[in-house]
Write a structure and sequence with these properties.
The protein is an alpha/beta fold. It contains 13 helices and eleven strands. The chain folds into two domains: 3-101, Ribosomal protein L30/S12 (60s Ribosomal Protein L30, Chain: A), CATH 3.30.1330; 107-271, SPOUT methyltransferase, trefoil knot domain (Alpha/beta knot, 3-Layer(aba) Sandwich), CATH 3.40.1280.10. The strands form two sheets. A six-stranded parallel β-sheet has the order 8-7-6-10-9-11. Strands 1-4-3-5-2 form a five-stranded mixed β-sheet. Strand 9, helix 11 and strand 10 form a beta-alpha-beta unit. Helix 3 packs parallel to helix 5 (63-72), helix 8 (127-139) packs parallel to helix 9 and helix 8 (127-139) runs parallel beside helix 13 (251-271). The radius of gyration is 20 Å and the shape is elongated.
Amino acid sequence: MIVLENPRSPRVRAVAKLTKRSARAETGLYLLEGPQAVREALTYSPEAIVELFATPNGWERHGDIRAKATDAGVEVEYVTEYVLNAMADTVTPQGLVAVVQQTPTSVRDIFAAAPRLVAICEEIRDPGNLGTIIRAADAAGADAVVLTGRTVDPYNPKVVRATTGSLFHLPVSVGADLSEVVGRAHAAGLNIIAADVKGDDLLQARAEGVLAEPTAWLFGNEAHGLEDEALGLADRVLRLPIFGRAESLNLATAASVCLYESAFAQRAAALA
């Protein structure tokens, strides 16, 4: 068994650089860490895996991952714990790290597929929030997530970890202009609903049946929400009511509720 042992080798440094956006932009690659992320990549996008590294013990612990890698023709390279730690962004990468090709989907292709539920993220800067929104969109059965403006890179290691594998489950578009996205969404028959504290009560829209229609939810920045120009592009602006004493909801939590409200309404309408 050949084991890569030098944590300062050029190859290890090249992998470690993928924690930085500049290296990801230059190479078109990104980093996956841990068994859950690697498992999802092998299940849904094995062709995107460029390199797979594991400690001997880490590889031995996960028989299902070994089987998936064998079936997909993905070879593993053994490394020491020191090398794996040098590659990874986390303190404990749990024995597995992979280098993966970025696979964003174009806005054109997303709306050409006649989606019924889409999340648009405008100027979202916190990696944990974006990753959680992608995960919530996946869980709610959304058809895609579209990132506009200066939204954080979806291939940032913190975003990737927060998606818990959902990054491989639905199309994600990167770097689009919001006005273009809205235009394509409208052309595809979707309403644009902005989530903002200045909007109407979501319960009112629920009663009107608005949420059962094909919808692209528009979510804004954690600190200042959506700019007036962005709000002006929306067909409707809604807010989540606060029934208790909380000052507000975390962005990712609010986005999750909004996406599920649409998912519930659309499925109920389909069964009616």
